[in-house]
Every structure is written in C-alpha cells, then in structure tokens.
Write a structure and sequence with these properties.
Length: 96
C-alpha cells in the first residue's frame, strides 16, 4: 500500500522557508563580499580600506537577506507609512 502524504502549502512549511532563507543569506553573503573585494581592489590602496569595503559589502548582503527573510516569515510587508497630515494639523502648526 502506498502511504498518502499530507502536502503542506509553502506558506506554512517552515522547513522550506528556512532552507530558502539560508540559501539566500549564503548567496548574498558571498556575492556581496566578492563585490566589496573587487571594489576595494579597484578603488583603494590601503589594506585597511580594502577590508572595510569587504565588510561593507558583506553587511549589505546580510542586511538585504535578513530583510527578505523577515518578510518571508511574517508573510506581510512592513507597515511603514507616512503620518497623515490634515488641514487642521497644518493650520495649528502655523498658528503656534
């Protein structure tokens, strides 16, 4: 007899999300580090500034991977909205 597996949608499959996030983080870490190393070799002479450009590129890669992974686990976009400005609040600010 064949066993029937319950298929879980990718929205609820944490293993798939973790695998995707680890893969994304490793790829962005490596590519951004290589980009920082190339930029450091191209633009800087001092070893300290070259290492700083590698560190900066690595930070960009890890930060962007963290942002994408947090969106994948939250399943929603961040609630960043500009404050609402109304006519009364503008006129109150001008009067003060």
């Amino acid at each position: 007899m064949a066993e029937k597996k319950d298929s879980v949608s990718t929205d609820y499959d944490l293993n798939a999300k973790w695998d995707a996030c680890i893969d994304l983080t490793v790829r962005r870490f490596v590519y951004s580090s290589l980009g920082g190393a190339f930029a450091g070799l191209l633009f800087f002479r001092s070893p300290v500034t070259r290492w700083a450009s590698i560190a900066f590129g690595t930070g960009l890669g890890i930060g962007s991977a963290y942002t994408d992974c947090s969106r994948a686990f939250d399943s929603s976009s961040p609630n960043v909205a500009a404050p609402k400005i109304t006519e009364t609040s503008v006129s109150q600010a001008v009067d003060e």
